[in-house]
Predict the 3D structure of the following.
Amino acid sequence: MNDAYLAATSTELGGIAGWAVGLMETIGGPGAGIAVAAENFFPPLPSEIILPLAGFTASRGGMSLAEALFWTTAGSVVGALVLYWLGMKLGRDRMYAIVDRIPFVDTGDLAKAEDWFTRHGRSAVFFGRMIPVVRSGISIPAGVSRMPLAQFTLYTTLGSLLWNSIFVLAGFFLGENWHYVETYASIFQYVAIGAAVLLVGWFVTKKIRARKSTEQSTGSVTDRPEG
């Protein structure tokens, strides 16, 4: 891996993003996971930089592509689970009070996530992982409403894996041009959402066909003459 390039990137970005790059440079995949987990608590930390850079690091041999996907998704899930637990234990009002005291974090973003969860239900956890403003806060209303933990974890994992895969793969194939991903982040967001819709559509269609097949088989047995 080109350590000099990563070091230069860390210096160029500076601030929080530079810290994330430096963390990845120092400890590799786990560093990417920690940085992505931190985004859950501090939304100004941009996954649009961390994820493609993790892909670029994988393309240079700093870690495997599988490791990049594993660690970034693990970071997303761990961070989301912490917020879910806080929402469940502290409740809505106390969470708003805490968020209001965190620098650079707007309670309006939490309100948007809460509204998204109210309007779309549990599916908001899956699709919310692909919406920048909603992604960090969606776990809190899920915890407050005591959404089943297994279901929350499954939806969060699937949504995070899809979102992370698109950005990590983009960084992997773009190489040193990984920074273009941030420029066209909105396009990649639409790609992620489109892929999610297709995936859900395929799953629902498969379930419907399986149900119809079962009903037809049951009907055939029922209609069969006795004796």
